[in-house]
Each structure stands twice: as C-alpha cells, then as structure tokens.
Task: inverse folding
C-alpha cells in the first residue's frame, strides 16, 4: 500500500497573486468546483484578511465545497487568524494556513524581529488557529533561504502548539532539487516530533525548478505538494499541479506514494483557469499545452502509429484531452448544450443565463460548424461576466483595412445606457479599433499586454484575445473570443474596461502596494 500524496491547490490564492489574475468571487467558486471534481484534497481559496472581497470569496468557496478541505491563508497575527476562522466557519472541512518569515534577511529587514520573537508569534498564531479548527498548517516563509537549525526549532515548537501540516516554502525559487530534497530529509530526521505532522512543500519557479524541487522533496518524505493549475502564481509562478501529478503517476516505479486525483479533469481545469484569468497556456507547456501530445516529425508519427508507447509516455485522454474533440454543432439542442456545459464545470444560475449562453452558442455555430470544448469554454467566460456588470457594451464595429490606406475604425458602444460613437485610425485594424473604443471610454489605462491565441485549428477557428490594462497600478485582464480577431480584440478590451469599472475588485495587493 503506497502513501497518499496530498494535493494542495493554491491557484485561488498564490495563483491569484500573478499581476492581472485577480478573480471575482463567482469565478473563484467556479474554479473551486472544478478542483473539487478533480478530487484535489485541499483548496486554498484566498487570504481573508487581505480585503473584503477576498474574505467573501473564501466564505463563498467554503460554503460551496463539500468534498475537499477549504483553506484560508493568514499571517501570524490574531486579526488575520480571526478573519480566516470567520471566513471558513461554514466549511465542511476547514484548514487555516498561517505563516511567518524565517530567513535572516526577512526577519531582519522585513519583520524587524529577533528569531525568538518570530517563534513566539508562530506558536501564538497556531494556538489561536486551533481555536477554529484542528486542521492547522504552518509555513516558515522563505524557508529555502532559512537556517536549518532555526527551522528545526520553530517547526518543533509549532507542532507542539498543534500544527498538523508543516509547509516548507521555497518562496523566492532559490533552491536546487538535490539540496531541497536533502533539507526535507534532514528536517524530518532532526525534528523530534516530526512524526506528528505531514511535511509539505511550496516551490516557486524563478529558476524553472519548482516541479523538480517539489518532486525531490516528495522523494525525501514530503507528503503534500502545494501547486497551481498551469503553474500560475507570483512572479514566475508555482509548481504546476498537472506536471507534479503526472510525474508521480507516470513514474510510479520511482515513488512510494501516489495521489488520488482524477487526472481526466486536468484539461477542463486548465482551460477554465486560463480563460478566467486571461493567462494563455503556451503551446509547448507539458501536459496541457496544445502541442503536448502532437507529433510533428514523420519518424515520430510513424512510430506512434505502429505503437503509441514508442514516443508517448502518457495517454492524452488520461489527462482529459478528448479523443473525438468535435462536440457540438448547429443542430445541437438546448439540453445537449446545457449538459455539456455542466460537464465542463459550468452551472447556470438562472434560465436567463442559460438562454443567453445558448443564444451565443447558436450565433457561433452559424459561423463555425464544428464547436469544440475549447469554444464552449470561451463562451463560458463571456457568459460569466453578467449582463448587469456590462457598463460598456459593444453595439457595432466597422473597420476599414486596405493596402496602401491607413486603417480606420468606427465603434458604437452603449456606455451606462447611452449610445456613443467613436472613431480612430491606427497602424492596423486592431490598433484602430482599440483606439476608437478608448476614444469613447477614455480610461487612460496603459495597454500592458495584447495577445492572440487560436482556440482550435483552422482559419474558421475562434481567436481568443487577452488584453491587460494598467490603470494607476490596478491591473486587469480582459478576454474576448470571436471567429473575427478584430471583434475578439474589441470584446477583450471592453471586458477589461468593464473590470476596471467594477469597484473593490482588488483581491490581493497589486503593483505599487507594500
Ligand atoms: O511563497 C510563499 O512563501 C507563500 C507562503 C505564504 C506559503 O506563498
Ligand atoms: Zn508562494
């Protein structure tokens, strides 16, 4: 019987710390439900003390999830722990995750505390968290650059205080696999009461080693990995859930533990997170990239046709790539549409929402006769930005782009129930369209990113456009999909403008915050 490797997903907390990846409460609940369906063990839903929005999101996830443990992050401060306890009060299974920095540089420069004081804070925080739940996790932040002797002292003390999970974060992604694995083995060996806690790891990807470091830790006794869908996360991101899980599963000959995750849900989760956050998945990304199972060279194709194991170490369908990907078409009915959307993790909250989505589906099916799961996912993103949140709505766009002429666009928008028109020239059709929109909405935001991805193959495929706007340090991502990429771009820009218009959307510190 192998040990269980606990999968702790922090897409909704650390993943959300990627600039522009902030999610609304409802988006978090949708992702949490998809993670629950995938049988993630622990879902870190947010940082309740960070903002009122974050508190509400953790509370909503705690109420919606029944089969995974829901976790809230808290600094080692009474007020943070109390907020986390309150946000999690309705959870069927709740965990409080408290942390304080332990590296010499963090203790001296950031906390301005003596090491003994840091231990006092940690112990007090764990004891306070135990008043809300028996399931308490402690992290010595920046453990990757902390002294091993000090880690042993603080970890022994927090186990005595009631922590049952000890998470060792490589906060700045500084560790190397062999060294990080050895640290985990040493901590387990040296801490006298280490058998009373599960050792966990949380690796950042600054040197591209987050997954390697996590796996090395698992080989040395860690039994929980903290990770995110698509490797989303602060700076270069966290260890990617799909890579950790599939490495452990594919190389069972090397591991004495396994996860109980349903890997067939990986693709659905990956697409959902990508479309909600507006962070596209690079085509060559392991497991979930569009090319992850595509064989280009003739020699490889020939080998795979004769025996797939010649060049494939995993089966695409085992991680949720459907073998027959054409799912719906123009003649598909409302029930078929609804049930496929449910399978993809989207539950309609009203008849009106279903009707609106079905109408958009029919419009798309008129333009594109084969509708794939990816198209439906893109549709979900449009539908989930509810009509009442649409302060700006696209009514019409006409663009003129001719060889030898300066591209020109004219747009009509409904802004706060008034129809307004604007026009502009630009270096291309997209540039002119976005400038025409900006001439009406006048956000004065800086366009930080513009990217186009084709959702499926072929020239009739939908283009999915991501636009990132920065308005005085507040960063939002807008997403739009359409078979016409100029219209997709306009939709994405308007989506971002609408997000800027919604007050108090901040879920975590953004650029410029301390
Ligand atoms: O990277 C980190 O150290 C964290 C902690 C809060 C666990 O995210
Ligand atoms: Zn982190």
Result:
């Amino acid at each position: 019987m192998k040990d269980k490797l606990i999968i702790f997903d922090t897409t909704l907390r650390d993943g959300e710390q990627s600039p522009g990846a902030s999610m609304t409460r409802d988006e978090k609940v949708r992702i949490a439900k998809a993670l629950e369906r995938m049988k993630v063990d622990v879902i870190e839903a947010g940082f309740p003390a960070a903002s009122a929005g974050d508190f509400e999101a953790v509370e909503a996830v705690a109420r919606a999830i029944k089969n995974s443990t829901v976790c809230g992050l808290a600094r080692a401060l009474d007020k943070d722990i109390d907020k986390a306890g309150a946000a999690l009060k309705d959870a069927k299974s709740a965990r409080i995750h408290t942390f304080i920095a332990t590296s010499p540089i963090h203790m001296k420069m950031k906390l301005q505390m003596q090491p003994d004081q840091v231990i006092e804070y940690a112990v007090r925080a764990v004891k306070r968290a135990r008043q809300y739940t028996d399931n308490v996790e402690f992290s010595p932040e920046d453990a990757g650059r902390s002294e091993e002797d000090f880690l042993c002292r603080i970890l022994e003390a927090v186990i005595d205080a009631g922590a049952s999970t000890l998470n060792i974060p490589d906060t700045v992604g500084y560790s190397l696999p062999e060294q990080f694995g050895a640290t985990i083995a040493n901590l387990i060996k040296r801490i006298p009461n280490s058998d009373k806690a599960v050792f966990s790891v949380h690796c950042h990807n600054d040197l591209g080693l987050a997954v390697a470091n996590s796996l090395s830790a698992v080989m040395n006794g860690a039994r929980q990995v903290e990770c995110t869908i698509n490797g989303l996360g602060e700076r270069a991101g966290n260890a990617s859930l799909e890579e950790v899980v599939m490495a452990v599963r594919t190389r069972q000959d090397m591991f004495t533990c396994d996860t109980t995750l349903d890997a067939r849900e990986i693709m659905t989760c990956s697409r959902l997170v990508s479309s909600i956050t507006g962070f596209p998945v690079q085509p060559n990304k392991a497991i979930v990239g569009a090319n992850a199972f595509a064989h280009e060279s003739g020699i490889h194709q020939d080998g795979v046709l004769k025996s797939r194991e010649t060049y494939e170490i995993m089966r695409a369908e085992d991680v949720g790539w459907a073998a027959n990907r054409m799912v719906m078409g123009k003649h598909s009915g409302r029930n078929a549409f609804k049930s496929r959307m449910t399978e993809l993790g989207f539950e309609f909250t009203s008849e009106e929402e279903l009707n609106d989505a079905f109408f958009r589906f029919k419009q798309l099916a008129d333009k594109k006769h084969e509708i794939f799961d990816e198209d439906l996912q893109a549709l979900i993103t449009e539908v989930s930005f509810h009509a009442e949140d649409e302060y700006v709505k696209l009514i019409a766009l006409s663009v003129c782009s001719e060889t030898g002429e300066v591209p020109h666009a004219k747009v009509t928008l409904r802004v706060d129930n008034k129809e307004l028109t604007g026009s502009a020239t630009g270096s291309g059709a997209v540039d002119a369209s976005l400038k025409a929109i900006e001439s009406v909405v006048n956000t004065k935001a800086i366009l930080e990113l513009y990217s186009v991805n084709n959702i499926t193959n072929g020239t009739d495929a939908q283009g999915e456009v991501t636009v990132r706007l920065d308005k005085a340090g507040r960063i939002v991502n807008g997403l739009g999909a359409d078979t016409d990429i100029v219209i997709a771009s306009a939709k994405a820009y308007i989506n971002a403008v609408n997000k800027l218009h919604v007050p108090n959307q901040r879920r975590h510190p953004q650029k410029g915050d301390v």
In short: The chain has four domains: 3-277, 293-318, 334-384, 389-501.
